[in-house]
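User: Quick sanity check before I run a bigger batch. Here is a single chain. Can you write out its predicted 3D structure?
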Amino acid sequence: MPTYAILGATGSTGSELVKFLLTKPKIHLNLYARSASKLAKLHPAAVSSENVTIFTGDLSDGSLLASCLRSVDVIFQTVATNENEPGCSIALMAAHGVVSALELLKREEGPASFKCPTVVVLSSAVVNPSMAAKAPHLLHWVLEKSLCYIYSDLREATEYLQANHQIRLILAQPGAILQGAPLGFELSEEEPSAFISYSDLARAMVQMAEEDGGQKWVGKGVAPVGLRLNERQKNFTPLIWYNLRGLLAVYFPSVWWFLRNRGWW
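Assistant: Done. Predicted structure follows.
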């Protein structure tokens, strides 16, 4: 029975991965999250499943993270932020944690015995140069400005992971991610995705890890392309507000922090 680790099991993408993979009885899941109570609330079926092992703590806990990643076949690294917080570095911190844990396991098992798992990392089409070049110029400019801190974090995390050549890395690089039921997707190295649901994104990441015995997408940036939107997802007002909020963080950071500290987002 293969074992998959999901880092960030209570986040939007991680939660959809948990829900989807719980429907596959021949897979063991190692779930890593900061809050045991939140995990239990979101995924009661996971807590009671004999095919799930739960690890709760901070990603800076190297020994705990190494225990979560020991002997796994695939790591789904979904720890990131959706908020354009000035100076955010959560994706980079997660990348450091994963690399440190894998190096610890390699020392424990010995280089000859250690088999590095496939690592599927949640990234973005915006940080993929070939995909970004195909986006409308104005749209790309707005995204790069309004989400600049997020993309800077993702780029640094990607560069750090790519520098560790032992890692079998796959970059899942969607466009805008929306809530909603799975509506179908396809995978592409060239065509960026305009929109995709979290449900389809989770399924796409699993396909990336499993297709052709896990070999097909290693070393590549892959866009999960949503095939259609439902009526609710065609309301783009939340996305417009989201990008305006990101621009506020760039040009008026003191106002952004003031509003955030008062619970506006």
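The chain has a mean pLDDT of 93.

User: Great, the batch can go ahead then.
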